[in-house]
Automatic annotation (TrEMBL):
Entries under SUPFAM superfamilies matching the protein: Thioredoxin-like
Domain of life: Bacteria
Pfam families per UniProt: Redoxin
Residue ranges occupied by any Thioredoxin domain in the UniProt entry: 8-144
Stretches of the chain forming a coiled coil according to its record: none
Descriptive protein name: TlpA disulfide reductase family protein
Naturally occurring in which organism (per UniProt): Polaribacter ponticola
Amino acid sequence: MLYGQQKFKLNDSIPDFKLWLLDDKIITKENTKNKVVVFKFWFTSCTPCISDIPQLNSLVKEFDKRDDILFIAPALDSKPVIEKFPFNFRIAYNSIDVSAVFNQKQVYPSYFIIDKKGKFSYIDNGNKISEFKELRKAVIKALK
């Protein structure tokens, strides 16, 4: 499913990236191979970005027994600012450079699902067309 105008199209390979997580681990294109990756690009003063956290947390909980899916939330904010958010995604901080590549329109929140082959299977870059149920359906489809 594709919502909005973006440099990337469905089935395009994802670009190289490097994200620093709150737990001091690093996520890259290489260490996400053979996993479905759900990205949510956001920042802390974006009201829509914050308001969907409870629904997204329930999505993480639904798939928490699986080891073939990662939920990653690259934030534009610094580590001290985002540490307090009750978000069950793995949060990356200071992600402005990666956001600029994935989310060229810089519209937030934006969602991307990467399939196990490292290709875009869902893109919603802030057009508000997508609903949570569509995101969930796209996750299920990518896991098949």
